[in-house]
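Retry 2 of 3 after timeout on previous attempt. Resubmitting structure tokens to design endpoint.
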């Protein structure tokens, strides 16, 4: 068992998400930075589908009710175990009643904490992920929560040390989406030339960007678009002309035109965008005009 002594700014349980429910309006959700979550699981010998804790910022404090092995990946920043500095991106042993605490991140935003055996809270619709938009899955962590841990598999961690550098500059690769043709060529170029500002209203549903207006073609101004399926990384443009990059808790359908889609690596980088940071978009494919 793991005891939550403080959830920090915000923490939830996440895994690889729930698949097969979008047709009834339930999104996949899951870890925002799938690579970091999978690495944390591998470091403690779990399958990459095992549930982990996704913590935003610092302040998360956990206590081990039993001896176990954990790993922390994702953002960079101070980490202590039993009051002593501990490494990130490596397996760490917690003895009974040892505490693990995350300090404020120095680079990035979200940290992933895996426990050998996985966080074994009850699954909802096949996943242990908390969906902040649909409010499906185990509730966000609170002080005093007791988190069950599953039975370990195999003989131990598969990886002993996995050095990981800090996230690079926020340059996201994008491909033009089918609704690219709703926007002028000047708007497309503006999308690529602008250093967009990440707004404080950004969350797991979407990263909201501030910058110049992306203009539609004259015959598309004020036009309505029937709701159509949405995917993680889609860049929607609401009527105010400013883009939103959809995150893991995005709605399953949407009525705003999607001008482009961020690739998988770029979506993981979005997990670590901090309000006030700037982000640039780089085209890898321009189609659909």
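Retry 2 succeeded. Sequence:
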């Amino acid at each position: 068992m793991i005891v939550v002594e403080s959830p920090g700014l915000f923490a939830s349980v996440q895994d690889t998400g729930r698949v097969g429910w979008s047709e009834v309006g339930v999104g996949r959700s899951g870890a925002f930075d799938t690579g970091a979550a999978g690495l944390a699981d591998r470091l403690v010998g779990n399958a990459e589908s095992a549930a982990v804790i996704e913590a935003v910022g610092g302040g998360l404090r956990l206590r081990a009710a039993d001896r176990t092995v954990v790993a922390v990946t994702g953002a960079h920043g101070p980490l202590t175990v039993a009051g002593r500095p501990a490494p990130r991106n490596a397996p760490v042993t917690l003895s009974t009643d040892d505490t693990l605490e995350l300090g404020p991140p120095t680079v990035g935003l979200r940290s992933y904490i895996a426990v050998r055996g996985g966080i074994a809270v009850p699954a909802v619709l096949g996943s242990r992920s908390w969906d902040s938009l649909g409010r499906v899955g185990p509730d966000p962590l609170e002080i005093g929560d007791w988190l069950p841990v599953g039975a370990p598999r195999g003989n131990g961690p598969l990886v002993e040390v996995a050095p990981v550098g800090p996230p690079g500059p926020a340059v996201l690769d994008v491909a033009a989406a089918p609704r690219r043709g709703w926007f002028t060529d000047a708007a497309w170029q503006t999308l690529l030339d602008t250093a967009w500002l990440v707004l404080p209203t950004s969350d797991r549903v979407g990263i909201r960007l501030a910058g110049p207006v992306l203009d539609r073609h004259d015959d598309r101004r004020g036009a309505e678009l029937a709701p159509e399926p949405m995917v993680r990384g889609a860049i929607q443009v609401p009527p105010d002309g400013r883009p939103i990059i959809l995150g893991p808790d995005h709605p399953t359908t949407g009525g705003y035109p999607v001008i482009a889609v961020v690739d998988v690596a770029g979506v993981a980088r979005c997990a670590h965008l901090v309000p006030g940071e700037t982000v640039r978009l780089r085209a890898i494919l321009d189609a659909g005009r």
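Attempt log closed. The first strand starts at residue 2 and ends at 7.
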